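Task 17 of the worksheet. Students: predict the tertiary structure of the chain below and write it out as structure tokens. Keep your answer in the requested format; marks are given for formatting as well as content.
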Amino acid sequence: MLERDVEKYFVAQCKKHDWLCWKMQSMSLRGFPDRMVVTGSGRIHFCEIKAEGGRVSPLQKAVAAKLAGKRVQVYLAVGKAGVDQMIEYILEKENNA
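Model answer:
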């Protein structure tokens, strides 16, 4: 499955939960996570999507580290199974909010 297919699957799963799932394309900051998800409770999640065998670039790691330094978590989903795990994790956070 290609990365774009994994990302389409991710968007479809977010839509099932009525979450906003926006593609992030920062012209000034390369390496920013692929997607920003806004849930019904207003929580914001930054998500990086990769195909099986895909790698997080050093620049993506550096941006995630900068965000982590501000207490912002970036989630990584690898393949369809990774997307399913990420959705479950976000749902758990929502249920414990």
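Marker's comment: The chain has one domain: 3-95. The mean pLDDT is 93.
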